[in-house]
Amino acid sequence: MIVAVAFACLNECCRPCHGCAVAAVFVTVVPSLSSDYCRRRFESAPLLWCERLSVKMSPSFGCAAADVASFPTRLHRRLLGIYEKGFERPSPIQEESIPIALTGSDILARAKNGTGKTAAFCVPAFKKIDQDNNVIQVVILVPTRELALQTSQVCKELGKHLQIQVMVTTGGTSLKDDIMRLYQPVHLLVGTPGRILDLAKKGVCILKDCSMLIMDEADKLLSPEFQPSIEQLIQFLPANRQILMFSATFPVTVKDFKDRYLKKPYIINLMDELTLKGITQYYAFVEERQKVHCLNTLFSKLQINQSIIFCNSVNRVELLAKKITELGYSCFYIHAKMLQDHRNRVFHDFRNGACRNLVCTDLFTRGIDIQAVNVVINFDFPKNSETYLHRVGRSGRFGHLGLAVNLITYEDRFNLYRIEQELGTEIKQISPHIDQAIYCR
Questions:
Q1: What distance, in Å, lies between the first and last C-alpha atoms of the chain?
Q2: In angstroms, rounded to a whole number, what is the distance separating the alpha carbons of residues 413 and 141?
Q3: Which helix (H) or strand (E) holds 188?
Q4: pTM of the model
C-alpha cells in the first residue's frame, strides 16, 4: 500500500525529473535524511511501513533542500488514513498490484478473499485523483449494494486526510438524491453498474474525465446480469482509461472481456490455493430434520465471536432465523427481497457487533469484510465450488483464523466430493471436540 503513498509524496516534493516515479519504489531511506530524523518524525507510525516506504532522494532526483526537509511532514499526512485503519504492513496483493497500477497499466488480479484487495485498488486510485479538479476521475464497480457501501466507507477512511470526495450510488435508492449529489464535487464514484449507467445516460454522471475503472468481484460483474451494462458504461469513458480487475475467481467469461477491453494487462495470480489459509473446514452428515438440532449443538460448543449461516433460499433464511431466535440466540437475517433501507440497517448493526449470528442467502458472499466473523456455517450446502469459496471466505478475514462447518445431507454428498476435487482442498468430518486455537485468535 505504501508504494502508492511514496509516489504521491514524490510528486509533491520532488521537482519533475526523468525516472523519478519509477526509481522511488522499495528503496532505502535517503542519505539526505538520517534514519534518526525519519524515526523521530514517524515515531507514531508502524516502523515497517516507514522502512518499506523509503525513497532514495539523491541529487539526480532534482530535490531542493527545502523539498527534502518537507518530505516527512507531507508523507505523514498521506499515511494518516492508513495508520488509522490499523494496517501494519502491505499484504501480498497490495505489494504486487500497487506499483503496477501506478505505471498506468491495466491489471487482471486474482487473490483470495480477505487479503486486502480493497486497499490494493483504493490507494492507486487516490494517486490518480487531482483534488482541485471537481470531476469524476475514478469509478469503482461492485456487484451488490452492501459491497458498494462497504467499499465507499473504506475509501473515505483511507482518504480522509486527502480531501477526496467519495460518492456511493446503487439501485434501490433515490435517483433524485443521486442526481442532486452529482451537482456537488465528486472525485471517486462507487456503485453498481446499472445505476451508474442510468445516471450516465441521463447526462448527470459525466465520465469523460474518468481515467480509471476498477471492477471488484469481477467474476460476478461479468455474469450475464451485469456485463451488458458494463460494456455500455465503458463507452462513456475516455479511450485512454485504465482498467483494474480484482476477484478471487475468474471464470471463462473473463478472457473474452480481457481480450476486448484491457490493453496488455499485467496478470497477477496469488491463488496458490483456492481456499483461504487459516480456515479449518469440517462437514457433518445429518438428515434434513436434524439440521436445527445440529446447529443448536454447534452454538453451544463453539466459541463464536460472530457467525454467518448460509441458506439456499429466501424462505429458508426467514424460517431458520425464527428457529434460532426461539432457541434463545440473538439472530439477524438478510436477503435480496428485503427493502434496501432494512438491509442497510441490518448490515450496519451486524458489522458493529449488535448481534452475534446472521442468517443470509448468497447475497452476503461477495467481498463483505467483517473481521469479527470467525465461524461460517453452511446450513444448506452450496451447489458449486465458486459459491463455496466465497461463503467460506467470510471467516478468516485478512489473516485471522476461521472455521467453516458444512451440514451435509445424503443428497449433498456428491457436491461435497466434487467441490473438494475442484478446489484441491480437504473438508474433514467434524470431531466431537474442536480446539479453539484453530479458529480463535
A1: 25
A2: 36
A3: strand 188-191
A4: 0.59
Among candidate residues 366, 328, 386, 413, the one with its CA nearest the CA of residue 117 = 366
Going by DSSP bridges, is the β-strand pair 107-110/266-269 parallel, antiparallel, or unpaired?
parallel
Mean pLDDT, 10 residues at a time, the chain of 441 residues: 38 34 29 36 40 35 39 52 66 88 93 79 91 96 92 90 92 91 96 96 96 93 92 96 88 82 91 65 95 95 93 95 95 89 88 92 70 91 87 70 93 92 86 81 64
Task: Round to whole Å and give the CA distance between 148 and 278.
Answer: 27
Q: Rounded to the nearest 5°, which phi and psi values hold at 217?
A: 55, 55
Q: How far apart are CA 74 and CA 322, in angstroms?
A: 54
Three cell numbers, residue 370 = 467483517
In whole angstroms, what is the distance from residue 377 CA to residue 383 CA?
15
Q: How far apart are CA 404 and CA 282, in angstroms?
A: 6
Query: What pLDDT does 115 receive?
Result: 74
Residues 416, 418, 422, 426: is their CA dihedral positive or negative?
positive
- pLDDT for the residue 423: 80
Residues 6+ positions from 326 with CB-CB distance below 8 Å: none
Nearest to 101 by CA among 234, 262, 230: 262
Query: What HEC string does 390-405 produce?
Result: HHHCCCCHHHCCEEEE
Distance CA 342, CA 338 (A): 7
For position 160, what pLDDT does the model report?
82
Bridge partners (DSSP) of residue 283 are: 406, 429
**Residue 299: its H or E element:** helix 291-301
Query: For 112-170, how does the pLDDT look when each residue is reduced to its tens digit (9 = 90+)?
Result: 766 788 889 998 999 899 999 999 999 999 999 989 999 999 999 888 888 899 999 99
How is residue 173 written as a grid cell? 435508492
The dihedral over CA atoms of 312, 385, 140, 350, expressed in degrees to the nearest 10, equals 40
Give one word for 382, left, alpha or beta, with left for phi > 0 and alpha for psi -120 to 50: beta
Identify which of 296, 244, 284, 301 has the alpha carbon closest to the alpha carbon of residue 267: 244
CA distance 137 to 423: 38
Distance CA 279, CA 90 (A): 21
Per-residue model confidence (pLDDT) at position 187: 97
- Residue at grid coordinates 473474452: 256
Q: What is the pLDDT of residue 272?
A: 53
| E strand or H helix at 244 | strand 242-247
**HSE-up (13 A, CA, CB side) for residue 306:** 23
Backbone angles phi, psi at 31, to 5 degrees: -60, -35
